[in-house]
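ARCHIVE CARD
Drawer: 12
Card no.: 0347
Subject: one protein chain, sequence and derived structure
Cross-reference: see card 0346
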Amino acid sequence: MTKRQPRLEKILPLIIILISILLYLNTLPNIFVYDDAYVITENYFIKSLGNLPKLFTKDYLPLSGELSYRPVVTLTYFFDYAIWRQNPLGYHLTNVILHTINVFLFYLFIKSISRNSSLSILATLLFLSHPLLTETVNAVCYREDILVSIFFLLAFIYFIKIRIPFSGRGNLTQQTRTRFVPSYITSCAFYCRALFSKEMAITLPILLVLFDLLCPSPGQGF
């Protein structure tokens, strides 16, 4: 029984990924809905890769059709259009892939906090199948919600990784010193990407402070 458990823990994430993909495969034949036409089919900004530098200029807002600064989201539209043109299947496929990445990161996030594989699996299954996500995955124009979650979770996970035990005298251990700086920089980099995906990422520092207060025991990574 003990020997089977490590094998099961390796297989379970793959099962979760498979379930996530299968659950939303029926979205691939769908057409563009809601504001998809506005941000894709009628958006001339994403139809030329020559416009990529304008993602980082004052011309972004009037040309992109966005009401707020979300260059990471628009960048994915550029890539989708370059590959798929106006074929909705490709855009929905990107959403399914991004959602699956999000599901896997959610599993890692819960596992890094709880240290409980069963709880992590149950929480992830609830997350990936929750009806609230249906609209987000189905509508291409809501992709910012998936992207901000991906970078939000990555920033949080790397924050947890740097909460390594201190030595007995209150000093950082050698292991902590070696991984603190790269993990901290990586967490900040993902946080910036989250902010450039959707503004709600601004709440991350507040959540990190609350997490540090409510979970004072340092994590061990995952």
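Annotation on reverse: Confidence is low (pLDDT under 50) at residues 165-170, 218-222. The CA atoms of residues 155 and 189 lie 8 Å apart.
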